[in-house]
What does this fold into?
Amino acid sequence: MSRNRFYLASAPIWRSLLHLCIPMIAGMSVGVIYNIINAGFIGALHDTSLLAALAYSMPVFALIMAVGGVFGVGGSTYISRLLGADGGSDSAPDRAKQVGSFTFWSALAAGVVVGVLGLAFATPIATLIGASGPALAPTAQYVGAMFAFSPVLVLAFSLEQLVRAEGAATASMIGLIASTVANLLLDVLFILVLGWGVLGAGIALGLSNLVMVGYYLWWLSRRSTAVSLTPRWFRADREMLRTVFGVGVSELLMSSFLLVSALVMNWVATGYGEALIASMGITQRIVQLPEMMCMGLFLGALPLFAYAFGAGNHARLRRAITAVAIGIGGLTVVFSGLVLIFKDQIVGWFSTDPTVLAESSALLTAMLVSTLFNGFTGLAITVFQATEQMRNATVMSVAQGVLFVPVILFGNALLGLPGVVWSMAVTEFLTFLLAGILFWTSRRALSTAPSAEAVASAQEVDAGDEDPVPVGA
It folds into this structure.
């Protein structure tokens, strides 16, 4: 059994989680630290409209990443379940190679489509997400740059998921850190040296993700024992589409509804002035650190959940879920507490505008409270995805967006600015309660085997398709 497969199959739970999650946390945390530094670079230009442009553009970036998640999360969980059902042997089932090829080529095609459409409508999209006045032009520039690199961004997220599908957490971390370092260096060049502002930040983002894609392509081609990206393995049969999209679409729905939430937030917040939008951009980057650390935990454990479920090792699955929940609780309490203590000093790193400083301090408190619930909600969604509970994953994915709209509208009408500031925390709490109810009612699903159709499909492929015919032959 390979070293990576050992951590998925039989290593002690805490040892497995250290192997899978620590590199993921490190890679994602470095990326968040970069985002904070990036906001500092833009803030050094002393133009509030540029900071506002970063805040306006975040939903677009999330939506592009969600397209990658459709294929990356759907494909990677399928591969991990197949490896678990295969009994932990070093040779991957042929079906896993087919899933890898389908994920890669489909993600690339989707990225091209999103990029072409986004570039054609960059300015209307910037207007749609709430940008106006001085912030409109830089927002359109940043959004346009992201859409220009959309195939790269979609592939980066999808390939990172494929790398982790067989437990290669260290390789995943290397790609994330390499991209972050490249992004930082390119930011210095494009923003500080060449003076390209947010356009330079967008170009740096795309080129740095190209570095990540290059590394993951090399690793999957040379080091992977489970995944193949070559066209000869490509399959798009009914079971492939049902399984990959059944899980992956929950990612797209979640980001789509979060985009709706962000649009409503931007529209409401615009009424309180550009300073509030800039404050949102600052605080969102700060709270990303505890959020990404928690995400590193449950995403790092995702292949372990799927592998244990595929292998029918339900006791190991339950122990893994419990351990990750303990980790999420500890991380959010400790980090959020420290940031709350030093929030005024931290906010002061990004702006000297008194209005921005005051509103950022209030926003940061509310958003840190929301992180206490967000991590557990993310864990529940991840477990649902790993264990083929597609209905529950979909319900959770749309819940936050559906709940947020009435919460912020009611809060704004009843309490004004404080209602807007605390709307996300209230929404996260309600979503957390829903996650708890769905998780409790789905306990039986955590003790059942993967779908018989998926297992039978994989067995049929292994038995009768050892030398696949190239696509189109």
